[in-house]
Design a protein that fits this description.
310 residues, globular, five-stranded antiparallel β-sheet, six-stranded antiparallel β-sheet, binds calcium ion, alpha+beta
């Protein structure tokens, strides 16, 4: 091969490699949106959840059956209690296994009914432990639910599985614990108050209301108390709610059930309190849960106080 031909072939090969490299760079840049030498951007942090507009408002009715698979046991007293009972968890319910009367049964795996050794003045409390593998926790809940349905005591809980990370029940379903049903009075304002100890922001207390809708019992209303705390000890929460009160109307010609204060009202037959904990994985303590009737004036006063100052 002549020297000139060799040089020509060498140039063609070099040129091809150069063009090929350039095309590859272009393709990568097109896919990643990066220029050569530019550091890949870190993904933006997850934006905070938008404020829920349906809290304390009318919401699309859910089928109560949807709730049942979440819990070891769903208290189903057909005759509603007059109000929430035994929110201090001291009274013992009779049955195959002891439990806090007028509440659900703990599963001794994610839900415990124990004395708080650090705060003996609280007596018995309910502790939700979300640091358990999701699959094992759901299996245990099914086990407890089926045993109680047969009127027998559940078998001993399996060994704990802490350190499940994102695969925990805290990172997925969360752990819930329900009260029995108690009556909801028409046009009545209430407040819920309770004591809480645990990781800040990882728990909520719900008050949920059910009523008849199109011939079927449906969940028709709910409100949430977010458990945000500054310290590591017990904190007290208080929040007003008005389950039967709906939108206000300034239209004097609106014929739809308008009352003197321009509010409309609907039927919520009964309420339940649900203690709930999820993320971060950990142990969440609850005690002294009370639901009290309050006047409309007190309701308006409490609603006007920012949540962080309650
Ligand atoms: Ca107690």
């Amino acid at each position: 091969m002549k020297t000139s031909e060799f040089k020509m072939q060498k140039w063609m090969v070099s040129s091809f490699i150069l063009h090929f490299s350039f095309c590859i760079t272009l393709c990568v840049s097109a896919v990643t949106g990066l220029s050569a030498g530019e550091e890949p951007k870190k993904p933006d942090p997850k934006p905070p959840d938008p404020p829920r507009k349906d809290v304390g408002q009318w919401k699309a009715p859910d089928k109560p059956k949807d709730d049942e698979h979440w819990y070891p046991e769903f208290p189903d007293n057909k005759v509603y209690n007059d109000t929430l009972i035994n929110g201090g968890f001291e009274e013992v319910g009779a049955g195959p296994v002891p439990y806090p009367k007028h509440w659900a049964h703990p599963d001794d795996y994610c839900i415990f009914w124990i004395k708080d050794a650090m705060s003996p003045e609280h007596g018995k409390v309910v502790v939700l432990d979300t640091d358990q593998a999701q699959g094992a926790a759901m299996k245990r809940q099914t086990q407890v639910r089926e045993a109680l349905a047969n009127g027998s005591a559940p078998p001993s809980p399996p060994a704990k599985t802490p350190g499940a990370g994102y695969g925990s029940i805290g990172g997925n379903n969360g752990v819930s614990f329900y009260s029995e049903r108690f009556a909801c009075k028409p046009k009545q304002a209430y407040k819920i108050n309770f004591d809480f100890k645990g990781p800040s922001g990882g728990a909520k207390v719900w008050v949920r209301g059910w009523g008849m809708f199109q011939g079927e019992e449906r969940r028709r209303w709910e409100t949430i108390v977010n458990c945000r705390v500054k310290g590591t000890g017990w904190a007290h929460f208080e929040q007003a709610f008005h389950p039967t009160r709906r939108r206000t109307s300034k239209d004097k010609n609106d014929p739809g059930g308008k009352d003197q204060d321009n509010a409309t009202y609907t039927e919520v037959a009964f309420l339940r309190v649900m203690l709930y904990a999820y993320w971060p994985n950990g142990q969440y303590y609850f005690d002294n849960v009370k639901v009290e009737e309050i006047s409309d004036d007190e309701y308006k006063r409490l609603k006007a106080i920012p949540a962080d100052e309650r």
